[in-house]
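Sample entry (144 residues):
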Amino acid sequence: MKIRTGVVYFILVLLAVSCEGKINQKEGQGVNDEVLQDQKKFTTIQWQDSSINFGTIKEGEKPLIHFRFKNTGDHPLYVVSVNASCGCTVVNYTKGAIQPGSSGEITGEFDSKGKSGEVNKTITVVTNTKFNMQHRLMFTGTVN
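Predicted structure, serialized as tokens:
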């Protein structure tokens, strides 16, 4: 039963990473599937912001949302992929190795053109972290 649950979890992670909008991966920086395979070098992460409300904006504005984190473990932290739940959000992130004790950031620029009302969006981040490799960041607000 544990093996089946693990396989289901793995498949769900893969589907979430591959199906939710645009995936940004570091190319040529040594961050690839190998990072996720060496669990002995996994680290821990502390999110300073994992849910942000950008307030009320006018339709057409593009708020920039910042999610900050810190590597609280003993090994370098790598952001392997970042993707937004929709094409209306462009994501960026700290690239390369984030050393123990150092901080990084995930940003999302939300394009509110053609949107109105309450906004509830997510950004999914995959890292080489113990216990949970997939992190969901949320941002909310209102578009008038």
